[in-house]
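Protein modeling request. Please complete all fields; requests missing the sequence field cannot be processed.
Requester role: graduate student
Desired output: 3D structure, token encoding
Chains: 1
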Amino acid sequence: MALDGAFLYAVRQELSGLIGSRIEKIHQPAREEILISLRNMEGSHKILISASADRARVHLTQQSIDNPPAPPMFCMLLRKRLGNGKLLAIRQDGLERVLYFDFSCVNTLGDVVQLTLACEIMGKYSNLILIDETGKVVDSIKRVDAEMSRKRLVLPGIAYALPPAEPRLNFLTDSMETIQAAITAQTGALPKVLLKTLEGVSPVLVREWAFYAGNGEECRAEALTAVQLKRLLEIMQQTKERLLQQNCVFTVAATKEGQLKDFSFLPLHQYGTLLVTKTFPSACAVLDYFYAERDRYARVRQRANDLFHLLLHATERIQRRIAAQTEERTQCAEKDTFRRKADLLSANLYRLKKGDPVAELEDFYEPDCPMVSIPLDVRLTPPQNAQRYYQQYKKACTAETVLTEQIAKGKAELAYLESVLDALTRAETEADMEQLRQELIEQGYLRKTSRNRRPVKIQQPLSVTATDGTQILIGRNNLQNDRLTLKTAAKTDVWLHTQNIPGSHVIICTHGETPSEQTILEAAQLAAWYSKAQQSAQVPVDYCLVKYVKKPVGAKPGMVIFTNQRTLYVTPRQTLEEEETL
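Delivered output (582 residues):
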């Protein structure tokens, strides 16, 4: 995990400025999270402590976190025992992933006692434990009994014991000679050897060291050259000085799409151009941003999954309906048979009488006039039987017309749902999700609930600057596509869209001038990128002036018709970095 003992050391250095502060409030916003508000002469500060298996951490936070209506039992205990307590010290045993917060508090008898809050950041074994002045556990946010662990119990009344740990070297206190001897005495990939030898280091940190030592090449501990060993000790010494002198470069690495991957207190070079890095002023700022963004991304993905299943079910329902209507329309192809039978009966009424089950007549529609058998309803007269076949013919004609219209509407609805699915795959923020949800509410696919009462903030389209400085606008979803093409764009601007493929509307803002071929090419590449054909090679993109783009009456959002278009075949490319328009 990236939050190693070394990073926690940097967090402790920052939090040390709060020593002397008093506890103002204690909340428990989630089952395994505690929020402690401290106040000093500089103002109020919030410390977030999480014992969650995948989000364990401790740091200052600026996030606004909702609290449950009723505080849980552990929160009530902390309020009772730590309320208005004074922070005396923040301790860390070497580079272990445990921070101890010592508080001076007043007990129920009025005596001043020292209580300790142990924050253990250890993945699925993370915990938050309150320890009394005698060293015994008062309670913990996660109790551990004998059935859960045989090595270490965490229960009220039991003496607090440190988590079991293997003896390892501390690169902040042990000499580089000792560390060198321990590393060279082992075999294996250098990052794994470093993890096994040193305490408080994470995979991302040792990979960065190994990357620097091998100058980008993989290294093995038993095969380190003198130059590689020198570079390894050099980067470790630099890391030590950064931590001790509080001169760290707090870095977050993310994919080009914005998905967060790692964080560190060093500049990260191991990923090269595969990931994008961003620096922050402090360790707490990194943790606050990283986990808040990751939670936000998880929430967006969860809401996207909900909408995805809704759209998938709607699509399957429409496809089944179209298949049934197509089969029914195929049966209407026999309508001419009904008309021919009616004509034959009408021409031979004098030969028929009521009660005949079958009429054996010559088929004058065929050259050789073969005999045909026409079933009759014995309850009806011959004219009524002929009329019955005429009615079946008319019914089949009407059904064929209606079914053709319904099938066309169904296919148009499928195309619309595909466009929404395409926008859903590119939705990155909660605002994007809210606009898609609002669109589906307006189209009747979702029911409006109380949480939808808040008006959705209208987002602006993505804005990109072409190589020659021309502005290119890109719609994020169907509602924005309509607004961009039909209201924002000028009649002389250029409109682009992938040919018969769901995607964004793209507008080249020409200001009445003719755009260059390079600008049109770049806009077409963007139109292909922001479409369902993003991973394809040669994508057809239609373009024309905005004045030739119209919206049919009653058409779904994002659906338009256009004329006077030309077509380019391009490879999708996010050639320029987009930024939101003001």
